[in-house]
């Protein structure tokens, strides 16, 4: 077969030759492709040393109000959910049986007190008579024993009267602590039994605590701050814009072996009632300020089989891997060791990079060119 005077074998050989020349030209004369990346500069700055955790709000004091006498509730002196003060009257239980018992005890006490005084005078008279042998010693001792028994009866009556007086006071139920009342469990007209029928619960709202665990590896940092007032910032989940400030008040004396964490508590004034017992909050404990920390954007840090690393852009426009040690993360920044301040690290495009690959910096902190690459634009 011929094509315009050229045989088919010759035509095919010519095409293959041209393809081979084109391949050689591209492999020998073309520059290597650059990988487009974004970079940021590692900076040395002062950053707060903080520990973040999830905590649970708990009341410093919470009590269930129980009646201490039996009887019928005559009056409820508050409304559910009210804030009450310590000592405020909450309930009135029918006091009539206890008032009558007190009057009876006081009457018995008065009677026995009169008899005891008479017995004491009689014993004193017989003592004088026994001294002059007007009466026998046995008569005096009998009078003295009667006086002693009468005095003991007075002491017993005094205790009975005190108990009756206390029961009458218990008929008026007062708030043992100040705080917010919960749901009313018994109402006017209900019959209550001493110690077995809760009337209402009271939870102290101000101040309030937040308990939270932190990894035990942070114990050395906590111990270095011993004796100092450490600030704690709580962020309620229901209101992420409202931060509440408090101070660290408690560090547990042992590590939880199941979780490897230690329990901490922070105390908050909670004057506006932003923290509610039982709710979960995000809490930040401020341990201090690290003035010479080296930070990079968190997206620059990569995790591989050999550990944590970043890509560093060299002066010749190549990117090499640099192992680093991450100390902690703060918002969008990572505090690390292993990269000097001022180094350019890759923040975007790392997945397309290989060690010593040429890079084309598309975005970064300055407009100077590195290793002949394209200019970086802010």
Overview of this protein structure:
The protein is of the alpha+beta class and 378 residues long. Among the domains are: 35-46 and 292-363, conserved putative lor/sdh protein from methanococcus maripaludis s2 fold (Beta Barrel); 95-170, Helix Hairpins (Orthogonal Bundle), CATH 1.10.287.470. The chain is built from 4 helices and 24 strands. It has helices at 8-29, 96-131, 137-170, 219-224; strands at residues 2-3, 6-7, 35-41, 43-59, 62-65, 71-76, 83-84, 89-93, 172-174, 179-181, 191-192, 200-203, 208-215, 231-236, 244-251, 261-268, 280-297, 302-304, 307-313, 318-323, 325-330, 333-337, 344-348, 357-363. The strands form 5 sheets. Strands 4-13-16-15-14-17 form a 6-stranded antiparallel β-barrel. Strands 3-23-19-20-24 form a 5-stranded mixed barrel. α2 (96-131) packs antiparallel against α3. It starts with a strand and ends in a 15-residue tail after the last strand.
Percent of residues in helices comes to 25-40%
With strands numbered from the N-terminus, the spatial order across the biggest sheet is: 4-13-16-15-14-17
**Radius of gyration, rounded?**
44 Å
| Run of helices and strands | EEHEEEEEEHHEEEEEHEEEEEEEEEEE
Q: How far from one another are the termini?
A: 63 Å
Number of beta strands:
24
- Structural class, by secondary structure, is alpha+beta
Catalogue the unreliable spans.
1-6, 10-29, 366-378
Percentage of β-strand residues: 35-45%
Features:
378 residues; alpha+beta; conserved putative lor/sdh protein from methanococcus maripaludis s2 fold; Helix Hairpins; 6-stranded antiparallel barrel; 5-stranded mixed beta barrel; 24 strands; elongated
């Amino acid at each position: 077969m011929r094509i315009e005077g050229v045989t088919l074998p010759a035509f095919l050989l010519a095409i293959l030759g041209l393809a081979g020349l084109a391949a050689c030209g591209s492999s020998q004369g073309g520059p290597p492709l650059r990988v487009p990346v974004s970079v940021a500069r590692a900076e040395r700055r002062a950053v707060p040393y903080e520990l973040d955790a999830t905590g649970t709000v708990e009341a410093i004091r919470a009590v269930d109000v129980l009646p201490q006498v039996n009887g019928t509730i005559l009056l409820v002196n508050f409304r559910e959910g009210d804030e009450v003060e310590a000592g405020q009257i909450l309930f009135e239980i029918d006091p009539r049986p206890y008032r009558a018992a007190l009057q009876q005890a006081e009457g018995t006490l008065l009677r026995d007190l009169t008899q005891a005084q008479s017995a004491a005078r009689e014993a004193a008279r017989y003592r004088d008579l026994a001294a002059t042998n007007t009466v026998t010693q046995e008569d005096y001792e009998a009078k003295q024993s009667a006086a002693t028994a009468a005095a003991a009866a007075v002491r017993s009556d005094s205790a009975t009267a005190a108990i009756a007086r206390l029961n009458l006071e218990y008929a008026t139920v007062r708030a043992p602590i100040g705080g917010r009342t919960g749901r009313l469990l018994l109402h006017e007209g209900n019959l209550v039994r001493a110690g077995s029928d809760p009337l209402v619960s009271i939870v102290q709202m101000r101040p309030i605590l937040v308990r939270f665990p932190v990894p035990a590896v942070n114990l050395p940092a906590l111990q270095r701050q011993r004796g100092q007032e450490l600030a704690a910032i709580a962020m309620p989940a229901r209101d992420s814009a409202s931060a509440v400030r408090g101070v660290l008040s408690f560090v547990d004396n042992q590590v939880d072996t199941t979780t490897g964490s230690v329990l901490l508590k922070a105390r908050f004034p909670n004057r506006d009632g932003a923290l509610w017992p039982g709710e979960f909050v995000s809490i930040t404990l401020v341990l201090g300020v690290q003035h010479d920390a080296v930070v990079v954007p968190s997206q620059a840090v990569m995790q591989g089989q050999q550990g944590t690393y970043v890509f560093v852009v060299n002066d010749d426009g190549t990117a090499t891997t640099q192992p680093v040690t991450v100390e902690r993360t703060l918002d969008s920044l990572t505090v690390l060791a292993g990269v000097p301040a001022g180094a350019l690290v890759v923040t975007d495009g790392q997945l397309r990079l290989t060690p010593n690959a040429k890079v084309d910096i598309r975005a970064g902190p300055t407009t100077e060119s590195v290793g002949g690459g394209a200019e970086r634009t802010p």
